[in-house]
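Archive entry. Fields below.
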Amino acid sequence: KAGVTQTPRYLIKTRGQQVTLSCSPISGHRSVSWYQQTPGQGLQFLFEYFSETQRNKGNFPGRFSGRQFSNSRSEMNVSTLELGDSALYLCASTSGPGNEQFFGPGTRLTVL
Amino acid sequence: DQQVKQNSPSLSVQEGRISILNCDYTNSMFDYFLWYKKYPAEGPTFLISISSIKDKNEDGRFTVFLNKSAKHLSLHIVPSQPGDSAVYFCAASHQGAQKLVFGQGTRLTINP
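PREDICTED_STRUCTURE:
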């Protein structure tokens, strides 16, 4: 069974631009969550999607948004990029509540 | 307010010995706990989990202990192997929510 895949693996953007990251969950998993990892704040929850609906949201500004498609693939978008948005963005999928989340390799975003 | 804390940023253990990684939490609503292992530039890899209805869960060389009264969990790795060298994160969630709250991580180094 293929794992969680994320594209692209690396991105370099400049301040003010916007970016879209993509995540394909493990086949059969309908829940997709996004996390941000930075050296200062660690791993922080961004949001979770299930059946194309956002179920949970972390404490991030509205510049961070996401969506999920009918095939469970998910995208997250960050608009008006700031230097502090430089981070590893991780996507995780799970088969259901109370089950472990499986993470993808992440997208390393650098904002210059 | 950090709800999940790993107070040891690093730990060094001799190969073949036991590694014990600790984690404390403050939110008594947490009812599901997980340990992840992470290598640089990769996503976290799920190791083992425990529900709050249990106080111990074993999987091969990995055992997780949960002390609800102390709001403390620990991961034991026996015997430790060089391939165990990585950063270990504990995480917690409640009521089946897919929002994981992570600790800051402990870097484990296994010395030959």
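CURATOR_NOTE: Chain B touches chain A at residues 32, 34, 36, 41-46, 49, 51, 89, 91, 96-105 (CB under 8 Å).
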